[in-house]
Automatic annotation (TrEMBL):
GO terms for biological process: ribosome disassembly. This is Translation initiation factor IF-3. Keywords: Cytoplasm, Initiation factor, Protein biosynthesis. Its main location: cytoplasm. One of its GO terms (molecular function) is ribosome binding. NCBIfam families: infC. PANTHER family: TRANSLATION INITIATION FACTOR IF-3, TRANSLATION INITIATION FACTOR IF-3, MITOCHONDRIAL. Residues 8-77 form the Translation initiation factor 3 N-terminal domain. Belongs to the IF-3 family. It is found in: Cytoplasm. Signal peptide: none annotated. The gene is infC. IF-3 binds to the 30S ribosomal subunit and shifts the equilibrium between 70S ribosomes and their 50S and 30S subunits in favor of the free subunits, thus enhancing the availability of 30S subunits on which protein synthesis initiation begins.
Length: 184
């Protein structure tokens, strides 16, 4: 629950609340008025931390400090998350060997950057009668990636989507220990 949504002191709507004091001791169920008086007597706030419980759970704490710690925790979580982008490489089933090598090189670079790659084969006209040629091209791409030592996971095998056949490849998971070892 976001700190903006928390009710404190006289904003708490319930008649009775379960109170936990500043040291973490359970004080039990008491009226909101008594709980607010208890919090004010020690110079702190009464914060409703679990409004959906029956009765709602409230803690006696310094609200400013609590809000700061919650926001800091959110910033740290946001900093540690990684955004994975989806790149797409398109080709036709009658692609030349050199063009296929170039495309697989680009796919390897995208995977090295940590992006997922959607490899698509576009069929036009009579090519739709020979979709197995697209599967052969996708298999060649996978073989070249393996041959070049690119670490990858096949998220979705070749699948027809209208006039296109595509597969999704993602970078292989790298352990944190090997990343630290490489950086040193």
């Amino acid at each position: 629950m976001a700190t903006k949504d928390l009710r404190i002191n006289r904003q708490i709507r319930a008649r009775e609340v379960f109170v936990i004091d500043a040291e973490g001791n359970q004080k039990g169920i008491m009226s909101v008025f008594d709980a607010v008086m208890l919090a004010e007597s020690v110079g702190l706030d009464l914060v409703e931390v679990s409004p959906n419980a029956n009765p709602p759970v409230c803690k006696v704490l310094d609200f400013g400090k609590y809000r700061y710690e919650q926001e800091k925790r959110l910033r740290d979580a946001k900093k540690n998350q990684s955004v994975v982008k989806m790149k797409e490489i398109r080709m036709q089933p009658k692609i030349e060997r050199h063009d296929l090598e170039t495309k697989s090189k680009f796919i390897g670079e995208f995977l090295a950057e940590g992006n997922k790659v959607k490899v698509s084969i576009r069929f036009r006209g009579r090519e739709l009668a020979h979709t197995e040629l697209g599967k052969v091209v996708l298999d060649k791409i996978l073989a070249q990636l393996t041959e070049n030592g690119v670490g990858f996971n096949l998220d979705r095998d070749a699948l027809m989507e209208g006039k296109m056949m595509s597969m999704i490849v993602s970078p292989a998971k790298v352990s944190a220990a090997s990343v630290k070892k490489d950086n040193q």
